[in-house]
Amino acid sequence: KAGVTQTPRYLIKTRGQQVTLSCSPISGHRSVSWYQQTPGQGLQFLFEYFSETQRNKGNFPGRFSGRQFSNSRSEMNVSTLELGDSALYLCASSLAGISQAFFGQGTRLTVV
Amino acid sequence: QQQVKQSPQSLIVQKGGISIINCAYENTAFDYFPWYQQFPGKGPALLIAIRPDVSEKKEGRFTISFNKSAKQFSLHIMDSQPGDSATYFCAARPYAGNMLTFGGGTRLMVKP
Average pLDDT of A80-105? Predict the structure, then answer.
């Protein structure tokens, strides 16, 4: 069974640009969550989607958005990139949002 | 504010020794307490998890101890091995949804 797949693995963007990251959950999983990991702030919850609906949202500015498609694949978008957005962005999937969460390897975003 | 405090930040243990990592939480709505292991360049992987109706759970060399009244839980790694060298995160989550709140992480080094 394939794990959680995140693409791309690495990205370099310029300040002010926007970026879209993709996450394909484990087959059959309907809940997808996104996290930001930085050395200073650690692992922080961004948002969770379940059956194409955003169920929870973390304390991030509106520049961070996401969506989930009918096949449970999810994308997150960051607009007007800032240097502080440089981080490892992790996606996690679970069966129904109350079960074990499996993480992908993440997308390393560098903003220059 | 929902917080999970983790200590120590770093830990050095001799091979064969016991590694102990502690976490404390504030939000009594938390209902699920997982521990994750993360190697460099990888996403976090679930090690073991516990619910508050159980005081201890053991899986192989890994044991979680849970003290509901003190709102504290800890991870014990018995017979620590060099391959256990990684960063460990405790986390907490309310019953519904996959919104994990993570501790700050503990970098474990097991010396041969």
Answer: 91
% pLDDT > 70, chain A: 97
Count how many Cα atoms sit within 13 Å of the Cα of residue A105 in the half-sphere of its side chain: 11
Three-class DSSP category at A82: coil
B87's CB contacts (< 8 A; 6+ apart) are B37, B38, B39, B105, B106, B107, B108
Closest of A2, A6, A68, A58 to residue A31, by C-alpha:
A68
pLDDT tens digits along A33-65: 999 999 989 999 999 999 999 998 999 999 999
**Is pLDDT at B2 greater than 70 in this prediction?**
no
Mark yes or no for CB contact A105/B42 under 8 Å. Answer: yes
* B 30-49 near A (Cβ less than 8 A): 32, 34, 36, 41-46, 49
The tokens of A72 are what? 């449970």
> B61, B60, B62: which is closest to B74 by C-alpha?
B62
- pLDDT confidence tier of residue A97, bands split at 50, 70 and 90: low
Shortest CB distance from B98 goes to which of A4, A31, A44? A31
Whether residue A1 contacts residue A26, with contact meaning beta carbons closer than 8 Å, is answered with: yes
